[in-house]
Design brief:
By secondary structure, this protein is α/β, with parallel strands linked by helices. It has three helices and nine strands; from the N terminus they run βαβαβββαββββ. α1 packs across α2.
Amino acid sequence: MDQDIEKILFPATDIQARIDELAARITEDYRGKELTVVAVLTGALMFTADLLRRIPLPLKLDCISVASYHGAAESSGEVKFEQLSLPDIAGRHVLVVDDILDSGLTLDAILSRFHAECRPLSVRICVLLSKQRPRRKEIHANYVGFPIADEFVVGYGLDYDERYRNLPFIGVLKQVRQG
């Protein structure tokens, strides 16, 4: 798999150091509050696990499964919720953790449903990566690991056609394979 990578943007050591910084900020911001962390599956799984191990607060963890890429290198524009019920977040402070903020469609759909159906006290967003490009939906992340250029990245949970999630770094693919 490493031969498919054009360049490494963030080695594992840089990712872990940045997660330490994010966890410290989140811990301070949520001290004394009832926090529920909602991980967006599957891409945020590794990031969420490493982040939560560094937050020494009592919290609840839930997951939400949504998809907007459907095996392609670009968002299809359709966000599909893949579970029957939403997390129980009524009356709680919620931190949504996602792997990447790209078009904004996925996080916008999640926030819209949470506010319309779940009645949280507050919702903030934490993303590992934020693409520096115009978004289809104007979404702002409260916590950002790294800003990146508009490149297709894989590793550390991010995939292309369900491959490369297990790489310990974040890198750019040499080329996106078709079919």
